[in-house]
Recover the amino acids of this structure.
């Protein structure tokens, strides 16, 4: 059963039982991505690491090794 079919079945059941319909599939995806990003930034701050630019900083260290 696909996600769309499950959503339609759940919507039908909710309508028959007089309950509120479930949210459409994918409706909260952007919110979830935003929450994950905020959590990772918060965790970085708590661990005393830079909250932004970590990938760029790591690439710069890797591509430009220190001179001896």
């Amino acid at each position: 059963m696909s996600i769309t079919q499950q959503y339609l079945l759940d919507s039908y059941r909710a309508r028959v039982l007089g309950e509120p319909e479930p949210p459409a599939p994918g409706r909260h995806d952007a919110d979830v991505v935003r929450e994950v990003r905020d959590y990772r930034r918060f965790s970085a701050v708590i661990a005393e690491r830079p909250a932004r630019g970590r990938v760029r900083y790591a690439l710069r260290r890797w591509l430009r090794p220190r001179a001896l």
Summary: The chain has a mean pLDDT of 87. The chain is about 65% helix and 0% strand. The helical segments are 3-17, 29-46, 54-63. The CA atoms of residues 55 and 65 lie 16 Å apart.
